[in-house]
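Schema walk-through. Below, the input block comes first and the output block second. Nothing else is stored per chain. Lengths vary across the set, and this one has 107 residues.
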Amino acid sequence: MSTDSDLRNIPTASPAPLIVSAAGDLINGPAARDLLAPVLRAPGGVTVDLSKVTYLSMEAVVPLLALAGRCAAEHRPLRVLGSDPVRRKLTLLGLAAVVPLDPATVP
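--- output ---
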């Protein structure tokens, strides 16, 4: 399946945290679900790096919210590194309190 995003999964040396990242336009729900699928199966903490995402659609926000809810229910740490457009979208939607946003820098 071809998307407008450069999707890649980057497992770290240890089981936690798992880092997944995307770049470009994250414009649809299936692309976001594909990006986040490894996170749902992985134990431990999660970092979602959206620091290079230039546009985040409403459809792509839904899987991110589902991930935040699941991580909270499982007491798993979640970090979201967001570009300005990502941070702006989540803040305008009132979701910055639900999705833990960090500055768009990778540790």
